[in-house]
Design brief:
By secondary structure, this protein is mostly helical. The protein has helices at about 5-15, 55, 65-75, 90-100, 115-130, 155, 160-165, 190-195, 200-205, 220-235, and strands spanning about 35, 40, 45-50, 140-145, 175-180, 210-215. Bound molecules: pyridoxal-5'-phosphate.
Amino acid sequence: MNNREMVRRSLAAVWHPCTQMKSHESVPMLAVAGAKGPWLYDFEGNRYLDGVSSWWVNLFGHGNPQINAALRAQLDELPHVMLAGATHAPAVELAERLAKVAPGDLGHAFFASDGASATEIALKMAFHYWANRGQPRKNRFVHLEGGYHGETVGALGVTDVPLFRKAYAPLLREGLPVPFPSRPPLRSSIFSRNATRRSPRSSSSRWSRARAACACITPITCGARASCARATRCCSSPTRS
Ligand SMILES: Cc1ncc(COP(=O)(O)O)c(C=O)c1O
């Protein structure tokens, strides 16, 4: 197997996420044969620094021995069981540890399979909380202009990156965007160039405390924002990568 053949097969069989597939007619896709620590290796022995930690999910490096050992031990003991109507020690122990580090009295963890699912769950929980308190009209979600919260239909409603949301606009529940509180204004970054433009007047007039169920805020650091912007650029346009 060589890089070219792997890419050919991939383009014929795989729909790659967060990607305008046409861009790969001019921007080569990276064929990864293996990974170790911070490095990715292609099928021809070249190595590449995984600068975005495979989209932030590999912060401890590829093939981390401690994590691999824990995964293997868990696979041997109990690979999977549903959490509906059943429970098991790893879920309980992790939930207990999260409760200890979470602020206030956030005493229960709801486990999701990915970032966008976590957003969906949070939106539903916020709505459900107000509905249980007799305020079902609090069903709109505040989000930051230029924010990113995933690409499932609910999460896209609070994601403000036209590249991802434009094609699906008719499906989306409009959020309540508020300006990003930064100095200098976010205007200078890739996110605001992409961000859906709304006048402060139109967003504030639609903004209503009576309707807002929660606010979605990404706890993003400058470094993470920079790599996030870079990933978006890489995904979005061959001329910018
Ligand atoms: C802040 C934030 N929320 C949600 C997501 C979506 O995560 P996933 O790609 O796992 O659905 C991301 C992904 O980059 C993210 O950065």
